[in-house]
Amino acid sequence: MTTPQPPRKTSHAADSAPARVLVVDDTPVNRDTLSRHVRREGYVVDTADHGREALEKLRAEPFDLVLLDVQMPEMDGPQLLETLRNDAALAHIPVIVVSAVDDIDSIVQCLELGADDYLPTLFRPAILRARLSAALDRKRLRDAESLTHELAVARKIQGDFLPESLPAALGVQLEARLQPARQVSGDFYDAFMLAPGGTIVLVVGDVCDKGLGAALFMALFRSLIRASADPVEGGAIQMIGGRRTVVRQSLEAATPADLLTRVAGFTNDYIARLHGRTNMFATAFLGALTPHTGQFDFVNAGHEPAIVIAPDGTTRELRPTGPALGLLPDAPFYADEGRLERGHSLFAFTDGLVEARSPAGEAFGTERLRDALRVNNTSASNLVEGVMEALDAFTGQAEQYDDVTLLAATRTSD
After folding, report:
1. How far apart are CA 240 and CA 270, in angstroms?
2. Max CA separation in the chain (angstroms)
């Protein structure tokens, strides 16, 4: 099934650049006169001699409005109009038919075929101005409504890439929160358990940039990490470049530290080699916690340092052990090993937390974060709730400029 393409961006609405108008008329004097008047209204004008040429231009580049003569050779006004309204990529472009007032049959035919308005061949500048303004305003409204709908669908789909629930393991409590700054997010988190040892993999990532592009890559990064960490799914994955093939047996036999470095290496090489031209990359914190021993291994790929909080409130940073994912192929990644003792907590986050601003423009910062962690260091859920409450109190009514993602793990018993 062919999916209709979303409306093209209207330049006038999106960035205050003049709207682009295509004047279609086979009579040179009429075409030049109308074009001159449209330019005087502040619009960018291109022209076509007949419907077929107009269709070629409309398919080659974006236009915001068409002024269309009715009687033309090769493809007349009604034929072009019907073609546009049956083309999902062009159907949204408003069309104003230019016709003599006494040619009522042609006007009615074009309106029935989907023309937005008509303009008399002999017009006053004020009438032209009103017709252009009304048609473009309606288009901007339709584009905004369509974009809102598309973003809502994208947000729902993106939500499906986050775990429905966090793993439950004896002696460990997990909690996570993602608060997007826009309809869609470039942040992501994940938490899943590896069989048969019960190791829990924890992931927090932040794709560069914002908006739909970052959201698309968020899904790709998350999927690559999840698939390459799973012994069953990862068995079919071929490493990119010089890295060796990951086979199911080697994944199952790998230590948590080995697994994390392989996952980081594969994800990095896949993005850098296959999507390097996009200049998209992600910082990521990858952790592996073995609940019954407290062993905790991590790879920090250019991400904000995660924080380990002891019961007495002291903190330790888990700083980067490699570059961001997707920057350069064959980049080295190293794992650091340690333990998450009983009563200790791990807190990973994206930079949208510490870079959040108050109404006065002051950053939330790492010191306020550590204070909030110390005050709420009783469980993973209290850590996440307490930090979010502190952040909300600090930012007040200030606009949120970046996504905020939190992931906490508390080891409650041996």
Report:
1. 6
2. 90
Q: How do residues 248-261 score in pLDDT, each as one tens digit?
A: 445 556 789 999 99
**Residue 135 in this model has a pLDDT that exceeds 60:** yes
**Torsion angle of alpha carbons 74, 76, 80, 83, nearest 10°?**
-70
Enclosing domain of residue 122: 11-153
With 0-12 / 13-18 / 19 or more C-beta atoms within 10 angstroms meaning exposed / middle / buried, residue 99 is buried
Domain-embedded: residue 328 = yes
pLDDT for 414 equals 64
Over residues 313-320, the mean pLDDT reads 95
Which of 153, 184, 205 terminates a domain? The answer is: 153
Phi, then psi, of 298 in degrees rounded to 5 = -150, 155
Number of H helices, E strands in the chain: 13, 15
Residue 395 near residue 365 (C-beta atoms within 8 A):
no
CA neighbor of 291 nearest in space, from 168, 204, 380: 168
Check which CATH number belongs to the domain holding 203 and give it.
Answer: 3.60.40.10
Angle between helix axes 125-159 and 211-229 (nearest 10 degrees) is 20
Token readout for 192 is: 């899943």
Q: Tell me the CA distances in angstroms from 209 to 283, 352, 404, one per residue in order.
A: 12, 12, 14
Chain centroid to CA 86:
30
CA atoms within 13 A on the CB side of 124: 3
- pTM exceeding the 0.70 threshold for the entire prediction: no
Q: What is the pLDDT of residues 157-199, one digit of tens each?
A: 666 778 889 998 889 999 999 998 877 788 999 999 987 778 9
Mean pLDDT, the chain, integer: 86
pLDDT of 235 > 60? The answer is no
Residues 82 and 177 in one domain: no
Task: Tell me the helix, strand and coil percentages in the chain, rounded to 5.
Answer: 40, 25, 40
> Can you tell me the distance from the alpha carbon of 95 to that of 223, in angstroms, rounded to the nearest whole number?
43
